[in-house]
Design a protein that fits this description.
Structural class: alpha+beta
Low-confidence stretches: 1-7, 571-601
Number of strands: 17
Distance between the termini: 14 Å
Mean pLDDT: 82
Helix content: 40-55%
Shape: globular
Strand order of the largest sheet: 2-1-4-5
Largest sheet: 4 strands, mixed
Number of helices: 21
């Protein structure tokens, strides 16, 4: 390792990231507050201060080179990763301008369909610049975004959108316009987006340059006259800005009205409600003519930004009754939302004490159940000759993630149905492996009783605890608590947000428990985990030194803190830093360490 390389490596590692994060968050909080009170002059001044800050530039580079999942994906320049020296150089050279590189187009499959959608991968420099611009713009727009906008927003999730729908229909059956915007990312009008952005010229020129940069697809360059490239750091924020105002337009046309009878207040007539997650949205109202008119209003509103509704995915229905051959209920974000008639003595009451006569039930949609089972079946078919332990390790993450996602609604029947289908598929897998053995022999080899559970698909190894296949039905059902309407990660209530993250239904159980044990803070830097932070579990004592897989030996760290700790420990194993001891100094190992520093520093 050269002296220059060692120096820059040490310089990158020795940066006081805690101080930098506090400085940047303080500026973002002030931007959020200035946007809330409408102080444009202070807002622009603070944004410029953040953009020129070395701290913000360093954090932007760290995010795209160390934290982000796609940090190893190259743009058109072919650069996949940066050494510590290259990171420092990029920080010092990170300045806004109008010259940008085109994005590299990659086609990826759409989940559950045979279609493919395009991703635009910017270069590493453009990614860092986009992260920097997003740092300045996001707090401003978080203070302005509508309360029922949930997609691609820090601190808000699919489950918040579903809970908002439930709260809207729990006391009254309503008509629903379930709609989808056609090719939202690909068709957004650039001029309309930049006008709505309404920011200062430096950022406007930079964003316009990204929008007009073009794409490289199979060595061919294509101009981009509309749309925002999916895959860029700032693209989701730009899409939300483009769609901002839909909810306000609907409320403006059909506001909530107070009902006065004989000079006295006697309740209210609810207005039309729009709930949006990215480019999917629903409009709810108890009058079908209002919902039909809302469809026309939204179609006209979308034309101003170059978009239109997708007819094949736009449906008018009712939550309780069948209308025009359409079954009651609708699917949204993978959930089926529907109301069922119930006896008035057992269905609860509304806010006025009136008996309802129906019950609102939210379940996993049948399409998502089929897609999930098909995925498990494909994995089992592909692992016909694999050991039982390998098959279990391959399926368990699929089951855990899917079951956690639907653990906030009425999913027990779906879980039981899936467990039965998976069991039948595993029986076919086991008998295929041993065609000359009896069913009794096969069942004793692959299934056993563990605790109070019978017929558990698990390994049999003496002296070690068996590795068992997870059951969907063992996932507890816990009601999701919707995020507070006006709350934002930039409102300085970090305790609230770290607690919410620990209670997120999609959060792994180990991570959730460690978050609660550590009171929402990283064990290495002591800062609260924020919504965009990537977290990893670390062993305090590495396994190679006798450490155990237990909560007493686990701690939760930021991904970059984990890398720093591993580098300081001198481990050469995987990212967890738990599979190899500290190397003895020697010339041979210096070269390995050099490569490793480039990867983890």
């Amino acid at each position: 390792m050269s002296k220059t390389s060692l120096k820059t490596t040490v310089e990158w590692r020795s940066i006081n990231w805690r101080k930098l994060e506090r400085r940047v968050y303080k500026l973002q909080k002030r931007i959020y507050q200035a946007s809330q009170r409408g102080d444009v002059k202070a807002l622009r001044r603070l944004q410029k201060t953040l953009m020129n800050s070395w701290s913000a530039r360093a954090l932007s580079v760290r995010r795209v080179t160390q934290d982000n999942t796609g940090k190893k994906t190259a743009g058109v320049d072919g650069i996949k990763s940066l050494s510590p020296a290259a990171r420092l150089k990029l920080v010092n050279n990170l300045k806004l301008g109008s010259k940008v590189s085109p994005t590299r187009r990659v086609w990826i499959p759409k989940p559950g369909t045979e279609e493919k959608r395009p991703l635009g991968i910017p270069t590493m420099k453009d990614r860092a610049l986009q992260a920097l611009v997003k740092m300045a713009l996001e707090p401003e727009w978080e203070a302005r975004f509508e309360p029922n906008s949930y997609g691609f927003r820090a601190g808000k999730s699919c489950h918040d959108a579903i809970e908002a729908i439930f709260n809207e229909i729990r006391y009254k059956a309503k008509y629903v316009l379930d709609a989808d915007i056609s090719k939202c990312f690909d068709k957004i009008d650039h001029v309309a987006l930049l006008n709505k952005l309404n920011t200062f010229p430096t950022i406007r020129r930079q964003i316009r340059a990204w929008l007009k940069a073009g794409v490289m697809d199979n060595m061919q360059h294509y101009e981009t006259s509309e749309g925002t490239p999916q895959g860029g750091v700032i693209s989701p924020l730009l899409a939300n800005i483009a769609l901002h105002g839909m909810e306000h337009r609907i409320k403006q046309a059909f506001p909530r009205r107070t009902i006065v009878k004989k000079g006295k207040y006697s309740g209210y007539q609810s207005g039309a409600t729009l709930i949006r997650y990215a480019d999917d949205f629903v409009i709810l109202h108890e009058d079908i003519t209002v919902v039909q008119r809302c469809r026309e209003i939204i179609s006209e509103w979308l034309k101003d930004i170059g978009l239109e509704l997708k007819p094949s995915k736009t449906r008018l229905t009712h939550t309780l009754s069948e209308i025009e051959g359409e079954k009651p209920g609708f699917d949204f974000l993978g959930f089926n939302i529907r109301q069922f008639p119930k006896g008035k003595h057992q269905s609860g009451k509304n806010t006025q004490g009136e008996k309802l006569g129906f019950k609102t039930i939210i379940t996993p949609s049948q399409n998502k159940i089929k897609v999930h089972y098909d995925l498990i079946a494909r994995v089992i078919d592909a692992q016909k000759s694999a050991p039982q332990a390998a098959l279990i390790k391959r399926i368990n993450p699929i089951i855990r993630g899917w079951a956690n996602y639907y653990a906030t609604v009425v999913s027990k029947e779906a879980y039981a149905e899936l467990d039965d289908l998976v069991y039948r598929k595993l029986v076919a897998w086991a008998t295929h492996r041993h065609p000359k053995k009896s069913k009794s022999w096969v069942s004793k080899k692959y299934w056993q009783s563990i605790g109070g559970d019978n017929w558990v698909f698990a390994t049999r190894k003496e002296g070690t605890s068996p590795l068992r296949l997870l059951d969907h039905a063992h996932t507890p059902i816990v009601r999701h608590v919707k995020v507070k309407g006006e709350s934002s990660p930039y409102d300085a209530n970090l305790v609230y947000w770290s607690t919410r993250r620990g209670n997120n239904p999609e959060m792994p159980i180990r991570v959730s428990k460690l978050l609660k044990r550590q009171k929402g803070k990283c064990a290495h830097c002591g800062l609260f985990f924020r919504e965009d932070d990537v977290m990893e579990i670390d062993h305090k004592i590495p396994k190679s030194q006798g450490g155990k897989d237990s909560y007493d030996n686990w701690q939760l760290l930021h991904r970059h803190c984990h890398d720093t700790k591993t580098a300081n420990d001198g481990s050469l194993g995987n990212q967890s830093g738990c599979n190899s001891a500290k190397p003895k100094p020697s010339k041979k190992l210096e070269r390995v360490e050099d490569k490793w520093v480039m990867r983890y520093a």
